[in-house]
Design brief:
201 residues; mainly alpha; two-stranded antiparallel ribbon; 7 helices; binds zinc ion
Length: 201
């Protein structure tokens, strides 16, 4: 957990620039989802916006078959956010849900902007990095220190060590670092220009 602490500190120092307001109340899921969606659409000039189906149940059918969890389905250009993931996110807080939405939206933009990571792991870490950029740059939502902590602890939690698996999404530390790289780039690069920071994945 020492590593996590260092990473959280790095994230918080990036986030300090973003939010100086006092801690705010937790937002409800629909406000978070709408706010993040609207914010990212704005960043991308309302181009190639994926459809959104949220609050679906894992196991229902979506455009890519049975819904395994929150994901982006390329076949019908739709982001799915599940009830289960919304609940899991709120064990950390509203910012964790914002991160999930931004991550799935990022998968749609990887295709729209022809980002081509070579492996699933690289693609997942790049989506984390892009999510960091979005969350740092969206004009209509601000993230205070507690939000940044929520994002960091959630990213840490969903990391995995299954490096042999083709579904490996990155280790906990790699995932936190990827979001941090994105958030820092969004502050330094002022939004969209920062996207290039995520091309390295
Ligand atoms: Zn992903």
């Amino acid at each position: 957990m020492k590593k996590l602490k260092a990473l959280v500190t790095a994230l918080v120092s990036a986030g300090c620039v973003l939010a100086t307001a006092p801690a705010k109340a937790e937002l409800s899921p629909n406000v978070v989802v709408d706010g993040v969606y609207e914010g990212i659409q704005h960043i991308h000039g309302y181009q190639a916006t994926p459809k959104l189906v949220w609050n679906v149940s894992r196991g229902q059918r979506g455009g890519c078959g049975v819904i395994p969890g929150s994901h982006y389905c390329k076949l019908n250009h739709t982001v799915y956010i599940t009830q289960q993931d919304i609940r899991m996110a709120y064990q950390h807080g509203d910012a964790a849900l914002a991160y999930i939405v931004a991550h799935e939206y990022a998968h749609a933009m990887q295709i729209a902007h022809r980002f081509m990571p070579r492996t699933i792991t690289a693609s997942e870490l790049q989506a984390d990095c892009l999510a960091g950029i979005y969350l740092g740059a969206i004009p209509n939502l601000t993230f205070d220190q507690r939000d940044i902590q929520e994002i960091a602890t959630f990213a840490y939690r969903i990391g995995d060590y299954a490096s042999w698996s083709q579904h490996h999404h990155g280790t906990p530390a790699q995932r936190v670092k990827a979001v941090a790289v994105g958030m820092k780039a969004s502050v330094n690069g002022k939004g969209l220009q920062g996207l290039s920071a995520c091309r390295a994945y």
